[in-house]
Amino acid sequence: MTLKQLEAFYWAATCNSFAMAAERVHLSVSSLSKRIAELEASLGQVLFDRGRHRAALTDAGTRLLPLAAALLQQADRLQQEMGSSTGLRGPCRLGVGELTALTWLPRLVEALSVDHPALEVSVHVDVGAALAERLDKGELDVAVIAGPASRSALTSVPLANARFAWCAGPKVAQGLRQMDADAIQSHRLVALPQGSGVTHLIDDWLRQTDARPARRLVCNHWGAIVGLLAQGRGIGLLPEGWAQALCARGVVQVLPSPVPLGSLGYALHSRRDDLRPLVSTLHGLAAQHADFTVASSAF
Length: 299
Description:
Number of helices: 13
Strand order of the largest sheet: 4-3-5-12-6
Oligomer: single chain
CATH architecture of the largest domain: 3-Layer(aba) Sandwich
Number of domains: 3
Structural class: alpha/beta
CATH class of the largest domain: Alpha Beta
Number of strands: 12
Helix content: 40-55%
Largest sheet: 5 strands, mixed
Shape: elongated
CATH superfamily of the largest domain: Periplasmic binding protein-like II
Distance between the termini: 55 Å
């Protein structure tokens, strides 16, 4: 029995497929299967039931999984403490929403490159619901998502809050005193798709004001939303930092609202069964650098 065999088993047991597990350990699927077969032969136990559409853990595999996770965690710590190179190494898959990508993500990546130069960092940008699904499947190591973990397999650590403001282009704003139910009836609501945390803020505001938008324009890109608002295509939310910067340039105007918008709390999500030092390191660095108040240079 070797650590490489245990590593192959651990990722095969916790990822959505053998193909994804093989990618995590830089092996072909056949090489991954060979290592698992060698481990089974060494233990004298069948670890996966391969007779189904998707391989499932046997009772022996279920018993081995927490033991393998603990051994691999200790091996990671030993390598960190005793290894000749500094920092963590290997793949590091981050999932973030566009708001994170356009504010503090560059600082997080820079900190990782300085403290852990051997990490192979990759970033996937998507809405929160899609990130949670990919994290659950083992396709990501961590993800920055609005709100607490909504899946039983995931856990989350709070990072920072983001605040937003109702905005419209100058021509639309000219005919409005404030953002209320009448305004949302008269103009199209420009918003991110369902699955984004911002949609919860909008839904809460609509309930409190008893407002029902007559028309919606759904767009999955913050930059495109800014362009649509600037051209007078409707009313929408923008992060406060961007709203203030764009307002100073005359691109949009902030609309006062008698019903205040709540803030949106973001958290770093990870899998409950992932106890690697990589995850705890990402928790610490994300908490240090998370800041949604910065106005992106893109705007």
